[in-house]
Amino acid sequence: MNDFDLYRPSEEHDMLRDAVRSLAEAKIAPYAAEVDEEGRFPQEALDALVANDLHAVHVPESYGGSGADALATVIVIEEVARVCASSSLIPAVNKLGSLPVILSGSEELKKKYLAPLAKGDAMFSYCLSEPDAGSDAAGMKTKAVRDGDTYVLNGVKRWITNAGVSEYYTVMAVTDPEKRSKGISAFVVEKSDEGVSFGAPEKKLGIKGSPTREVYLDNVRIPADRMIGAEGTGFATAMKTLDHTRITIAAQALGIAQGALDYAKGYVKERKQFGKPIGDFQGIQFMLADMAMKLEAARQLTYAAAARSERVSAGSGKEDLTFFGAAAKCYASDAAMEITTDAVQLLGGYGYTRDYPLERMMRDAKITQIYEGTNQVQRIVMARNLP
């Protein structure tokens, strides 16, 4: 065996990285600080991603999408997050919101909702958490009651990424209160459905360009055929979805950390103290070495998890995806928090100011340890699914 490519992305993946990096640096990076400062949606990023078919690369070709594999999706998110974490939530959350339809939806649902997503005519969000149901998602109170050929939904969903911007929402709701998790079903709700409204945008530490709002469902009546899968299978679909999409959060963490490391490397070469660049000092070199080591370990774990995600999607059932998805998300996000904190330290007082991007990256990194399951929950998931 002459070409040992087992631990190396393909040439196509490398070409994709180069293309996304060039696009991100030209069309997304110039607005990143402004988007954060103003707390506004990164419309420039959405326009650029849609124009280049990078907003929802995971959608299968049969529904008008690019049909990108899980690793390609990771690379897109990683490269966008390298310059703007808020913007990386466009491809990431489009996958999160639509994957339940891909995994469990009827053919009619797939055609109806994946095609507009692939075209860039709509975005997709994911509604699982509630004010009193976070880590204990099965304790949700949102209800869906059957009424003839319709379901009527009532409840509140909290921490919904891109709420108000997305046209479509995958909503988990209780259809049989006696069965706890096995009494939860999944539905597609449209922004235009009567009774759907949104709370004020949350005032957050980071990812300020990605709106996070509550979604209110007040007697929202939808056709019964908008149920995703069979009644009572919604929670299982939600958990299966997270097995795949936690890897995209790992990708976001990788990108944020890479952006911070790249900036810090450039800075220590230019900043001089005691007559020479501070990058010549061993203490600084040790910090950079540790940052790069953690980042590369996180990347290898994330890419391995993405490969497992792809094999599971292709029908393989023996991949320990639940463990590897949780491990990648947990390790990469912890690494990103450490790397961005150290990057701020390397710039000293400058790192603490908004004139430089590292304080934004540090703030953005924090959420990757929290959403799609806190890292404490990830450790519980790993312990229960040891390979």
Automatic annotation (TrEMBL):
Flavoprotein as UniProt keyword: yes
Domain Acyl-CoA dehydrogenase/oxidase N-terminal: 10-121
Catalyzed chemical reaction(s): a 2,3-saturated acyl-CoA + A = a 2,3-dehydroacyl-CoA + AH2
This protein's UniProt keywords: FAD, Flavoprotein, Oxidoreductase
Domain Acyl-CoA dehydrogenase/oxidase C-terminal, residue spans: 232-386
Cofactor(s) required for function per UniProt: FAD
GO molecular function: acyl-CoA dehydrogenase activity; flavin adenine dinucleotide binding
Acyl-CoA oxidase/dehydrogenase middle domain segment(s): 126-220
Highest taxon above the source species: Bacteria
Chain coiled-coil ranges: none
Gene3D superfamilies in the record: Acyl-CoA dehydrogenase/oxidase, N-terminal domain (1.10.540.10), Butyryl-CoA Dehydrogenase, subunit A, domain 2 (2.40.110.10), Butyryl-CoA Dehydrogenase, subunit A, domain 3 (1.20.140.10)
Family listed: Belongs to the acyl-CoA dehydrogenase family.
The protein's name in its UniProt record: Probable acyl-CoA dehydrogenase fadE25
Gene source species: Streptomyces malaysiensis
